[in-house]
């Protein structure tokens, strides 16, 4: 007689097979899963909408009075609360509930778990819901961590709770990695008998979190040829010659075939380092496997060594990683954990910190070992003298925030190999002398962090200009948080950093930065007898001040005449006192390296500028030509009444080493739409206009 299991949705041909199924692990696991689902429905409520301007902590405290809370999940306008038992739920559903005179809309939670092993028919919808569930769970975890930290009265106790919360036990992680590598070896050695799987990344450095994937490098143990080398080898050569493409294809096929061990196999062959993502079923772990050279293994060993040199490093790095993840700075398409860790190591190498040695120091006395042409080994016996640095972890964290909140990414390169801040101009000269591929390094990117081993690799090439601005803004906020927490022996520091509300705060005004380097124009506008004059005490300072004045005058002319902005000058960036600047006054006193002004406009004159005036006098300067175009556009827009309010603050700040002026535009309307449009245009156009205008003035011997 046929039987049907309602829990597993499986039909059986007879009683014998049905009872055998009931005793099986899969059925018992599904029964446990179903009971968990039922318990969640009985013990949970769904509240939406949440009263506006309500603190999440107050909501938790309010619902705690009805019974002990097991977990809670905050969404954009809702909260899901699961109690430890069902009595509070029955009470809340039975009568109207008010919170600060706001009647709450409380319903029983609907839990829709897909059956294990079955895929939802609506794949996109299922993925979306799954993503929302993950975000809610992460938010609930952060809230729980914040509440736990606030209950601990000392910094040391809070740090211990934080580390326990963000990491699993080291022994568990190592056991998990060992099992993954053993399974990979068992499967892949059928084709690659000399192969060896080696884990690297955060599981090796000790900087893993509970959400971390396991990174594995598989060394096939044989010579790997270029694809072009074996393209025409033909069928006569029976010896298998492995290439990166053939290895990737073969491993992908073998992972797909072993479905009992590996699932969710996702090959990504076009990545800079081709990777295959998969889920390791026995350990329930997401993994990435790569096959290219294995420099990542040595990078991980380097970071692991650095972490071992001082007991403060591991907690510091874990706090910084958690902070970046919470604020949405790190992740896919954003700041990589590797670049964030190396940036932190670079800060700790600085002379005023002096906590870590440079990579060159570690490599100075070891027998060289090369991989793909790069020196990768180092002396693990070198112990740095950090006795003069007694800073606490919170003080080091504040130093990190301050260092990168003020760091000039636009003109400098971060080099952990020698621990030096090098200007991009000097850096390019240096690496050209070492015969390193400048183009591969992408120094022109918004951020350049040189890999400590692979010296032509910029590990921060994915950082965008907007991401840099957000990162520096978050660093500046971090400095303020550290200063505030220092008043109470840093008791509030970790709760502040782990606050789940941080990510949902309204975004700050948009920022845009434009660097105007002096370069070949550094001596433009100097007196003809400048070199022979004896009345100038500091000629270098005079050149810097003169260049600042040149850029200021040109920017003023561009803003007023080309973009038709009204300028309201400001002086003293701290008190923001408004002053009147006369036409011929010199705002560049020896103590004034920064000028600010508010810009207001009605028209986006960046639109439709091409071919607006087909023939122009070739003797006109660049600014004069742009003014004619703007005048015509302004007449058309005024006639059509196409007004677009624009308001932003512009700051000009003199920078040295190398000499340049940093222009920062800050949106004042918080709408961002018109600012982003015209700001992006100005960021690309202003350096070109200034360069062409100066060339024209030199050619026709004109002065400002």
From TrEMBL:
UniProt subcellular location: Cytoplasm
Keywords: Cytoplasm, Magnesium, Metal-binding, Nucleotidyltransferase, RNA-binding, Transferase
Main location: cytoplasm
Domain RRM intervals: 43-116
Pfam families: MTPAP-like_central, PAP_assoc, RRM_1
Catalytic activity: RNA(n) + UTP = RNA(n)-3'-uridine ribonucleotide + diphosphate
Enzyme Commission code: 2.7.7.52
Names of the cofactor(s): Mn(2+); Mg(2+)
UniProt keyword annotation of Kinase present: no
Function: Poly(A) polymerase that creates the 3'-poly(A) tail of specific pre-mRNAs. Localizes to nuclear speckles together with PIP5K1A and mediates polyadenylation of a select set of mRNAs, such as HMOX1. In addition to polyadenylation, it is also required for the 3'-end cleavage of pre-mRNAs: binds to the 3'UTR of targeted pre-mRNAs and promotes the recruitment and assembly of the CPSF complex on the 3'UTR of pre-mRNAs. In addition to adenylyltransferase activity, also has uridylyltransferase activity.
Protein's recorded name: Speckle targeted PIP5K1A-regulated poly(A) polymerase
Protein species of origin: Microctonus aethiopoides
């Amino acid at each position: 007689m046929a039987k049907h299991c309602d829990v597993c949705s499986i039909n059986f041909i007879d009683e014998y097979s049905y009872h055998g199924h009931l005793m099986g692990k899969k059925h018992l696991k599904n029964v446990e899963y179903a009971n968990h689902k039922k318990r969640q429905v009985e013990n949970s409520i769904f509240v939406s909408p949440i009263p506006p301007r309500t603190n999440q902590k107050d909501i938790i405290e309010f619902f705690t009075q009805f019974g002990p809370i097991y977990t809670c999940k905050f969404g954009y306008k809702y909260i899901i609360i699961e109690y430890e038992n069902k009595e509070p739920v029955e009470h809340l559903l039975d009568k109207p509930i008010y919170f600060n005179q706001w009647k709450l809309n409380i319903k029983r939670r609907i839990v829709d778990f897909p059956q294990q092993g079955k895929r939802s028919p609506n794949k996109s919808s299922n993925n979306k819901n799954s993503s929302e569930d993950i975000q809610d769970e992460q938010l609930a975890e952060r809230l729980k961590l914040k509440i736990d930290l606030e209950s601990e009265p000392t910094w040391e106790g809070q740090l211990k709770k934080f580390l326990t919360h963000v990491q699993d036990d080291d022994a568990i992680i190592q056991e998990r990695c060992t099992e993954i590598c053993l399974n990979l070896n068992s499967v892949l050695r059928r084709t690659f008998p000399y192969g060896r799987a080696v884990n690297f990344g955060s599981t090796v450095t000790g900087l893993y979190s509970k959400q971390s994937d396991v990174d594995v490098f598989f060394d096939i143990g044989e010579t790997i040829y270029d694809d072009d080398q074996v393209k025409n080898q033909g069928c006569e050569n029976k010896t298998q010659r492995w290439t990166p493409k053939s290895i990737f294809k073969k491993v992908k096929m073998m992972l797909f075939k072993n479905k009992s061990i590996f699932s969710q196999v996702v090959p990504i062959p076009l990545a800079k380092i081709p990777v295959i993502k998969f889920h390791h079923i026995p350990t329930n772990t997401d993994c990435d496997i790569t096959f290219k050279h294995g420099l990542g293994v040595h990078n991980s060993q380097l970071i692991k060594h650095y972490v071992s040199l001082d007991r403060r490093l591991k907690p510091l790095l874990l706090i910084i990683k958690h902070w970046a993840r919470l604020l949405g700075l790190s992740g896919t398409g954003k700041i990589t954990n590797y670049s964030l860790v190396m940036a932190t190591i670079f800060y700790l190498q600085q002379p005023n910190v002096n906590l870590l040695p440079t990579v060159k120091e570690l490599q100075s006395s070891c027998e060289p070992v090369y991989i793909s042409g790069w020196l990768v080994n180092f002396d693990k016996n070198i112990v740095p003298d950090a006795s003069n640095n007694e800073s606490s972890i919170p003080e080091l964290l504040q130093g990190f925030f301050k260092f990168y909140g003020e760091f000039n990414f636009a003109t400098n390169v971060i080099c952990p190999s020698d621990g030096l801040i090098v200007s991009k101009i000097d850096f390019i000269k240096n690496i050209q002398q070492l015969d390193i591929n400048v183009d591969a390094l992408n120094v022109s990117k918004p951020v350049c962090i040189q890999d400590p081993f692979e010296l032509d690799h910029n590990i921060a090439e994915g950082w965008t200009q907007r991401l840099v601005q957000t990162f520096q803004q978050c660093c500046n906020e971090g400095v303020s948080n550290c200063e505030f927490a220092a008043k109470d022996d840093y008791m509030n520091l970790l709760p502040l950093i782990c606050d789940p509300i941080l990510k949902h705060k309204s975004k700050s005004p948009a920022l845009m930065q434009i660097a105007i380097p002096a370069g070949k124009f550094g001596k433009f506008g100097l007196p003809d007898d400048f070199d022979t004059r004896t009345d100038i005490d500091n000629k270098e300072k005079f050149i810097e001040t003169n260049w600042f004045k040149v850029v200021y005058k040109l920017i003023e002319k561009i803003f007023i005449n080309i973009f038709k902005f009204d300028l309201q000058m400001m002086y003293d960036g701290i008190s923001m006192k408004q002053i009147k600047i006369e036409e011929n006054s010199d705002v560049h006193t020896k103590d004034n390296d920064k000028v600010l002004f508010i810009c207001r406009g009605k028209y986006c004159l960046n639109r439709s500028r091409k071919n607006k005036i087909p023939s122009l006098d070739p003797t006109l300067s660049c600014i004069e030509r742009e003014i004619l175009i703007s005048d015509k556009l302004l007449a058309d827009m005024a006639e059509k009444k196409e007004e677009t309010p624009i308001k932003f603050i512009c700051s000009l700040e003199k920078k040295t080493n190398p000499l340049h002026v940093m222009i920062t535009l800050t949106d004042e309307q918080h709408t961002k739409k018109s600012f982003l449009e015209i700001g992006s245009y100005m960021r690309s156009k202003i350096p070109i206009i200034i360069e062409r205008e100066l060339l024209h003035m030199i050619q026709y011997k004109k002065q400002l």
